[in-house]
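Worked problem 6 (solution included).
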Amino acid sequence: MIRTSFNDGWQVRPKVNPFAELSGRVVPFRPVRLPHDAMIEQRRTSPGGEVTMETAGGAYFPGGVFEYRKTFLVPEEFRGKRIFVEFEGVYRDATVYINGDYAGQRPYGYSHFRIDADRFLRFGEENVIRVEARAHQDSRWYTGAGIYRDTWLLVGEVVRIAPDSLRVTTPDIDGSRAVVEVATDVVNDSIEVRTLPVATEILDAAGTVVAGDVSKVTVLPGESATVRQRLYVSSPALWSTASPTLYDCRVTLGDVDEEAVTFGMRTLQLDPQHGLRVNGETVNLRGACVHHDNGVLGAATYARAEERRVEILKEAGFNAIRISHQPMSKAMLDACDRVGMLVVDEAFDVWISGKTEFDYSLNFPEWWERDIEAMVAKDMNHPSVIMYSIGNEIPETGSPFGAAWGRRLAEKVRALDPTRYVTNAVNGLLAVMSELGSLRQQRLEQAAKQGAGINTLMADAGDAMGAINSSQLVTERTEESFALLDVAGMNYAEARYALDRDLFPNRIILGTETYPTRIDGIWAMVEQYGHVIGDFTWTGWDYLGEVGIGRPQYATEDGRRHAHNAPYPYLVAGCGDIDITGHRRPASYYREIVYGLRAEPYIAVRRPEHHGRTWAGSPWAWSDTVSSWTWPGFEGAPVTVDVYSDADEVELISNGTSLGRRPAGAQHRFRTDFETVYTPGDLVAVAYRDGVETGRTNLRSAEGPVRLTVQADREVVAAKGGDLVHVDLTLTDAHGTCHTGADRVVSLEVSGPAELVGFGSAAPSTEEQFDGTEHTTYEGRALAVLCATGPGKIHLTASALGCEPVEIIVTAE
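Solution. The predicted structure is:
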């Protein structure tokens, strides 16, 4: 079928009651270009009273019902053809009307779906499509709302290749050749028997045909037929994270239709001794859990924004992404294929037990199969996808009925795609939630025998989670739910890794979600145990919603416990290695060192205003540090400097004076700290192994007047297709050192063929929005995102108080 972008020409408004409009209340539509997040434009408000998971989870954005419409001409020559409108994602409870008539719906906000449109269309005339979407207390995180992913118009003949039906697998690969199996579904909506040739070609990265086959298919009226062809590629170039080589498969159905997909050739193996092997080599998954929102863009899914995230994550040392907790966008999958990033794609956060008032559990029993089918159809040809997750922290997994549901889902996935593995991100605590009272009593008795109180025994939430997950109760209640999987996904259950090696010798474990503060110990187990194939930190990239779970916190004088979530106007979770603008935080560099990917030490300075206070952050909270030696107003004040390193010892030098050497490396959790006073100038860390320097790094204080600098991620972008320019705005001194303590409002002006689609900072708590032309920097940085709207020169001018205006020019062609 011919696929054409359907993103232009839309309008949106908050939906109003039609009876209210009859009485005179008219809410006008306004033009938008898809993808579009209707929620990110809403004004957040303080909920008042107690902070709840629903309000804090959604970052205090209000829910709502949003109405989109588009008028489009259907040419007379389209009469007699099959026409579909495809939506890659609408959040949520999408209902579609064409020319006023109900045409279809999709409750789940993360599945792509198609509307069979031709029966409703008026050929040779203007047509109106209308989409309603609603979001209201239906998730534990920021979801966005509206038509937030791409839309497409599909036009084809009555005899055609069915969309999403071209499936390419490589069941047999050796050094000399690869067997490529191509399955194609051909649909016949006509009233006659049709026999057509099916020509299939495999093309390499240079566009050279390396294999081909032609066969005939006969399709009866009103039926479909599957064509299976085996092709053989000599000397195949295998896809891997280090060498993400891709091929194209092109299938031509007579002279009526053509489809093409991109795929990669690679092998997967799994066992408790060697772990996960890709192309015969063991790969430990250095994983990042990632939410679907794109920071200042909200939930709007632009292909370039997805690609940029994958690139930055890989540069930070990750080799795998677990999308959390819903199917990954097509754009991100494409990026993972190109960049070389492994993927665990996840289906659901709920099954039949709801977590919020109006979540997907209300629709799950009726829709789960169709949503599983959509996820697998989307993923089938992507070499980056190695595993499907059927759920996340599903409470039912601790019961026999929940295990039965898990088996249904797992077998459904296997029936659709037997070439990949199936996991489920199980949280043992949730699986035995109804039994926590008796479990708590057991721990109290144990604590009494040890002469300690329960608060002492479980002072750390991570220790409490570990104690519960390693209990006999969790072992028994989750046994079947783990046994039905290929890989036992475990959330915050590293306490089970060694235990299960003996209890369940055939069980293969993946840390599907873990605390970032424990990566050193966890990674040591990944490297030690063959049955533990990797770790996914919560989270690789910070996200909107679940506000403040990773925020810095300090002990209060009266001993009160801090709330799990932060109050308004907190905006982000605060637990990402990388902030919402794409800037790497200290935790990211620490992780890179633990992975063995960075030889240079890294300096992280604790904020001097909190010096001497007792840390009380959650297990998701990294230390309250900044890689900066610019602290105006704290001259002469005491300060703690952390140094991360895998070397035997590190030396810290302040303005040429050594502050001594201290041990570091794995035996000291890859870190050490120095107590000093803040004196502007240079701070240098030097790493030594066996007395020999192995690397050094330095921080320099910003000095003199503040300058505003701009840098675009690309000089040339595509004029069509919604291509983006990401522009970093930084306050620096004359030497380019970031002024982390001189934040101010930055104003933007954009001219040329582009629009500003997002502008903001990584400030964890703010009342500023992302849809304006002014925003305050955070730690000296902000990010502007421009979307090209046509060919020409795009000009962005930025100004800030006390700084010379700066301009950057990007070419769209």
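Discussion: The chain has five domains: 2-157, 161-255, 283-541+576-586, 599-700, 707-812.
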